[in-house]
Structures are given as structure tokens and as C-alpha cells.
Design brief:
The structure is a single chain. Helix 2 packs across helix 3. The chain has about 300 residues and is an alpha/beta fold. It has ten helices and ten strands. The longest helix has 28 residues. Helix 8 links the parallel strand 7 and strand 8.
């Protein structure tokens, strides 16, 4: 018999070998494993036959492992450590109260929405664990589709038959201008009035970038891009420095120093929602958190 075939027969009985190494007694091993003693004896005989040599020899009132069996049992003990740890992790993974959720979200949503959702959920499931992943909208979509993420908080909500979604909120988009800008303090501004402005934009792949590009195109112009960034806070900082204007969600609790927010006319907003892969089973941990978030779903 090849060692591969022997490994296949040994694998289901690693715990038996490790237990025998500790107890040196078939009866005691049967008690610890909650298996009838005749079953233990039959398994040992079958393993010995597969190995080509007995695994045990009598030793007083107990047994002694042969040298070959000692080698196998020692290896079994080493293997059981990682297996036991993996079993604990697997149990935690599927238990809603202590399982792990891999959640992706846009940088901007990490300011208040994500902390609020996690705080409220941990109040009812204090042992829940999360791996948090931030990035652009396209990056989150790609990682969600590939299975790297369990759930993703996105804006705008994707229209993709491969994904299921729940709309959580509608977020107004405003024009952010430097405090001394000609439009600062205005009650509203149309997109066409911005044709000659220099824009500070997020890079392609971000939801706000797509919204800005689409609004400019609908108004009949291509935006003059002064700077591109990866985070809305950086974009706001560049606006405050007088380096351009930007379309951004309202800044909570109010516009930062050096920035004036002007409503767009007609009003513009974006949807924020939770997305997950359609028709795919999820662990109870993921389902429990998903249900918690969906409870906030817009009516």
C-alpha cells in the first residue's frame, strides 16, 4: 500500500491514535472518545493491516504502541493542533453571535455610517468579529464579486443582476466651493453655471466621480480637472485651499472651515445601500448582520 493510501485511512483516526498515545489503554481511550471498545479494537486492527504491522502490543494491563505507531501518533498530535484551532474558528464563523463578517465600504461611509452600524450591532452581538475593507466603489464591487467580501456598503447602489441590494439612505450631493468663491452662500446653483470652473475630483472608479462626470455631461460640458484624489477629505482640503470646486455629500455636522456648501438645482442625491452576491448561501453570522443593516432599509 502506498503512503498516500495509508494517509487516507489514517486521517479519520488521528484522534484515536493521539488518545492511545496518552492513555496507553484501549478501554480508557474508548471512554474518552465515547466509542465502544470493540469498535476501537477493530479500527486498530484495520489500521495495523493497512500499515503491515500491528500498532499495539500488550504491556501489563494496558498496551504499548509499537515504534511505527508512535511515529504515527506523534504526527497525529501535531496535526490535531491546527485542526482543533480550525474547528474552533469554523464554529465561530457560523455562529451569529461570534462569527466573522468581511465588510467592504467606501472611504466616505467610514465617517459615520459604518461606525454607527457596528456600534448598534455589537450592542446585541458583543462577540461578533469584523474585517473591514475600504476602497473605491469599483474596487468594492470587484472584491465582492470575487468572494473576498461578504457584504459591501456602496453608493450609488449597483444595478447588477448578480447582486442583491437593500437601499439604506438617500444622500444629497452639494457643490463645495472655497469660502471666498463667487458662489459661496448662494441658495442654489445649476450645473451649467459650472462649465468654466476647475474641479477637484475623485479618481475614476469612485461613485462620486461617476456622478460628477454624468452631471457635467448632462449639462453639456466636460469638467476641467485641476486635481484628482482618492479620499473625499483630501478633495475638501484642496477646495478649502482654493484649488477648485467639487461635488460632495454634505459634511457632518457642517461644512469645514474654508468650504461653503451650495445646493444643486435641481437637487441631486445618491443612494447608499448594502450589496451581496445573489443566490449564494451565507453563514449565519453574515446573515444576522445583513438583517440588522436591512432593518434600516428605506421604505
Amino acid at each position: 500500500m502506498s503512503h498516500e493510501s495509508l494517509t487516507a485511512q489514517l486521517a479519520p483516526h488521528l484522534l484515536l491514535l493521539a488518545t492511545l498515545r496518552k492513555t496507553r489503554n484501549v478501554t480508557r481511550a474508548a471512554e474518552l472518545l465515547a466509542v465502544p471498545q470493540p469498535t476501537i479494537s477493530r479500527r486498530l486492527a484495520a489500521l495495523g493491516e493497512a500499515l503491515g504491522s500491528p500498532l499495539t502490543v500488550p504491556d501489563g494491563r494496558g498496551i504499548r504502541l509499537t515504534r511505527a505507531a508512535e511515529l504515527l501518533a506523534e504526527a497525529a498530535e501535531r496535526a490535531l493542533g491546527p485542526v482543533d484551532a480550525g474547528a474552533r474558528l469554523a464554529r465561530e464563523e457560523i455562529e451569529p453571535g461570534s462569527g466573522r463578517v468581511v465588510l467592504g465600504f467606501l472611504h466616505l461611509l467610514g465617517r459615520s455610517l459604518v461606525p454607527t452600524l457596528l456600534r448598534d450591532y455589537r450592542a446585541q452581538a458583543p462577540a461578533a468579529r469584523f474585517t473591514l475593507v475600504q476602497g473605491s466603489r469599483q474596487e468594492m464591487l470587484d472584491r465582492l464579486s470575487s468572494g473576498e467580501l461578504d457584504l459591501a456598503l456602496l453608493a450609488p447602489v449597483p444595478d447588477d443582476p448578480a447582486l442583491e441590494t437593500a437601499v439604506l439612505d438617500e444622500q444629497p450631493i452639494l457643490l463645495s466651493v472655497p469660502a471666498g468663491h463667487r458662489l459661496a452662500g448662494h441658495e442654489g446653483v445649476g450645473m451649467a453655471e459650472l462649465a468654466d470652473e476647475e474641479f477637484v475630483m475623485l479618481e475614476p472608479g469612485y461613485g462620486l466621480r461617476r456622478i460628477t462626470d454624468d452631471l457635467c455631461a448632462a449639462a453639456g460640458f466636460s469638467p476641467k480637472i485641476a486635481f484628482e484624489g482618492q479620499e473625499s477629505d483630501t478633495v475638501r482640503g484642496l477646495v478649502a485651499a482654493g484649488l477648485g470646486v467639487a461635488l460632495l455629500p454634505h459634511f457632518e455636522p457642517g461644512a469645514p472651515a474654508g468650504v461653503s456648501e451650495v445646493p444643486l438645482l435641481p437637487p441631486v442625491g445618491r443612494t447608499i445601500g448594502l450589496a451581496w452576491r445573489a443566490g449564494e448561501p451565507v453563514s449565519p453570522a453574515v446573515r444576522a448582520f445583513r438583517d440588522h443593516v436591512k432593518a434600516r432599509e428605506c421604505s
